[in-house]
Amino acid sequence: MLSAVTRTGVLNPARTPLARANCVRSVRAFVATAARRAEDEPQSVVAERALKNRPVSPHLGIYQPQMSWVLSGIHRNAGVAVGGAAFLYTAAFGLAPVLGMDLSSVAVASTLAAAPTPLLLAAKALASSCLSFHCFNGVRHLVWDTGRAVSNQGVFTTGYAVIAATTLATGYLTFF
Asked: Residue 55 and residue 57: Cα distance in Å, rounded?
């Protein structure tokens, strides 16, 4: 029987009985696997379903909307919107001197003051709703991380609380 320790005194894992057994098992599993062809069955199934105007796989349209996954999707989209807007403004602020733009506080404030009121209110409502929803729903997730409110009733209670808090915060930040 081969020794697990080589001449250098270092353990060689390939020489241990367990490693040899695993190697044999993986070789057997590999040998038993059928070879894959280029014209495999899944592609023909996809083409066949496309001809019948059938969906390839279930999609969101077959599911009844539930608060948990709807708020999860909104949370992700709000996070992307807030993070993307912050990234774009930061990049524009950094490149402004190179591009000859003026993004100083005075220039931004004068541009916003000249904007039509409905457009300004819509922009404020969109920004404040994304920011407030993402913050409140983030707090909701932190509460879940402590193990609280993870039951069905807790999910609905915290979901409605997030919606109410977002509505109040959006109204406050938009109009005041």
From this structure: 5
